[in-house]
C-alpha cells in the first residue's frame, strides 16, 4: 500500500482560542495594511478573551502603541461600528473589547498624553469623527440598548474613557453630548439598585471634569434634577453600595459580639459538634488585619463623589436622601447606611491617603447637610436604627434604643477625632470634624432643641484633643492652618459652655462640662501658653475657659481644706453652688462660621476625583 501523502502534525502543548491569534496579528504586526472586512467580522464574532487581550496590551509600551497606531485606529473605528450595529453577539463583544483596550491604552505613560492618545485611538485628522461616533454609540446603547447587559457594558466603556482620559481634553466630547438623561433613565429602570453604582460613578466623574476651569453642563443637570422616583432609586443604590462597603470592614473584624447560645458555649469548651455549631472562622493576625484595612474601602467607594455632587447642588435630593425609607429592612434608611459606612471609614481614615480622601468627601457632604437649616432640623428629628463602628478602642457607650441622626453624627465626629490622632495631624480632617460639631451645636442652640445625647463623651473627647494638641505642640505648630483649627475648637467648647442651657437636655449635662473643665484645668493653661492664645482672636474664648476652670478649681480647693477627700457627687454639688459666684463676659461671634465654598477646597476635590478615576478603572476590569 502506498504511503499516505497526509502527515500527522504534532499535538501542541496548549490550545488557545482563535481570537488570541487575531489579537497578536493585529497588535504585533507592524505593517500599515488595512485589515479586510472579513477579519473584523470574525474578530467581533469571536468571544473576547479579556485576560489574554489585557496581557498582550500590558506587554506593549506607549511607544509600541504609537508604532502600531494605524491598527489601533482601525480597531477603534470598527469596534464603534460593531458596537452600534445591534447585531448579536458582535455588539456585545465589541463593547467588551473596547473596555479592555481603552482601559489599558489610557493607563500608559505618554510623553504628550493628549496628542499621543489621540494618535493611538483615532489619528489627529479623524479625532472629531471617531469620538463623536463613540459618544453617540455609547449614549444610544445606554439609553436604548436592547438588553440591560448591553446598557451596562456601554456604561463600562464610558467609564474607561472618563477615568482614563480625565486629565486630557478628550472628555470634552462627553460634555458636548449630554449623557445625564440616559444615565438617570437607566438608573430608574434597573431592578437591582447595586447595579446603579457604575452609572452613578460615571455621572459623578463627568460632573467633576474641569468644573473649576470651564462651564460643565453636568453641574446644571445635577442641580436641576427633580424626578423623585429616580432620586429614590439613586438613594436606594447609595444605600446598597454603602452596606456592601461597610460589610467589607466587618468581614475583616466583626465588631458586633455574637449573642449567647448553647452552641457557642459548647464550642468554647471544644464540644461544638454536639450542638451542630459551625466551626469558628479563623481570626486574622494583627498584621493581616492592618493590611486588609489598608485596602479599604473597595472601588465602589467612588460613588461617594456622586453623592457629594448631588448634596451640594440639589436640595431636593438632600431632603429625599434624609427622608427616604426602605420597607422591610431592619436598618431602613439610605442616610443611615451612608452614615454607618462613614463611621467605619472614619475609624480607619489614617491608614491610607485614599481612605483619608474619601473621609474628606463624606465630611464635605455631611457639612453641607448640617448647614442647610431644613435638613439640620430633619437630622435632629429623624430617629432610625444605625450601626456605628466599634472596631477600635476607645469605644463610645452602646445605646440600645434608636437615636436621632444628629446624635449619631456627633458620635461619628467624636470617633473620627479619637482615632486619627497623629503627630502629622490631618488638619483638614479635624477642621471638618470640629466644624461640623460647631454647626450642629449652633443649630441646636438657636433652635433651642434639647438633644438627648451622652454629652459628657463629647466634652471628654474635645478636651482630650486639647491635651493632645498641648503635648505635641512642637510637632503640630508648624502645620498649615493649625491655628484655624484651634480657633474653631476653642469656640466650640466655649459656645457649649455659654449656651449649653439652650440645648442640653438636663442640668447634669451642663454641670458636666464645668466638671470636665476643672479636670482638664492644667491642660487648658498649658494649651493657652503653648499656642500663645492669651492674645489674638482666640484670646477672649480661651480666657473664658481658663477663668471657669480656675473659678471652680478654687472653690474645690477651698472645700478640700475642710474635707480631706471629695467624692464626684460633692464636686458636682460645689459646681452647682458655684454658678452664683461665676461671672462670664458675653462673647459674640462664637456661633459664627462660614458657609461651605467649594472653590476653597478645589485642590482636595481634584485629588479625590483622580482617586475616584482610579477606582473606576479597577471597577470595570
From TrEMBL:
The keyword Protein transport does not apply. Keywords: Membrane, Transmembrane, Transmembrane helix. GO terms for cellular component: cytosol; membrane. It is found in: Membrane. It holds the Pfam family ARMH3_C. Its main location: membrane. InterPro entries: ARMD3-like, ARMH3_C. This is DUF1741-domain-containing protein. It comes from Aureobasidium pullulans EXF-150.
